[in-house]
Amino acid sequence: MRIVRTTSGEVIPDESGRAAGRGAYVCRTGDCLDKALTKGALSRALKTSLPQEAREALAGSLTNTEDIEGGARGQE
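Above: the chain's sequence. Below: its structure in token form.
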């Protein structure tokens, strides 16, 4: 999943993968996103602090891992 900080400073999930702005990729599992948020990796990648509203919006955009095809690395 791609997450973008737009030119206006808003942090949004980018389903199309083509939104303008600074982007970062995070796998679609809750654990991966939690790690990226708690360790500050997503904030560093987007070069901005993430307010609570943005964190909640990103968590709401996750899909079930059962819907993702392929294995853990997407190659199986």
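The mean pLDDT is 82.
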